[in-house]
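Record type: ASSEMBLY
Status: queued
Input:
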Amino acid sequence: MSATVYDKNNIFARILRGEIPCSKVFENDDVLAFHDIHPQAPVHVLVIPKGEYVTFGDFVAAAPATTVAAFFQAVGTLASTLGVIDSGYRIVSNNGTGGGQEVPHFHVHLKGGKGAVA
Ligand code: 5GP
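Status: finished
Output:
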């Protein structure tokens, strides 16, 4: 399966370039995490790789294995630092328009806290 063409002007690309502000919770060389602008849970953070991948499929097919590992390790660490281990949490990735993806830059929603699982 070929990778989807990446839109360099999608909203998360613009956040990564600093053109649009975000409420940052974590950043390293590979990953940026920030609060969702329309939270659907007490804790609702978006975790994105810094590389240009449209979907989960693109990410795991094209990114180096070390980058994929670093990404998901960051998600796990964030669940801990955000304090949602005890409450329980969800990690969700919408893929493709049929999968409910609105922003065409691969991302994981990390939702937790009281009421996160309706
Ligand atoms: P998707 O439907 O693509 O899985 O989720 C995209 C998410 O990005 C939505 O939950 C939406 O609220 C969030 N979002 C869209 N634009 C912005 C923005 O400019 N800043 C932040 N922090 N979140 C955004």
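Annotation: The longest helix spans residues 65-81.
Annotation: Residues 59 and 65 are 10 Å apart (CA to CA).
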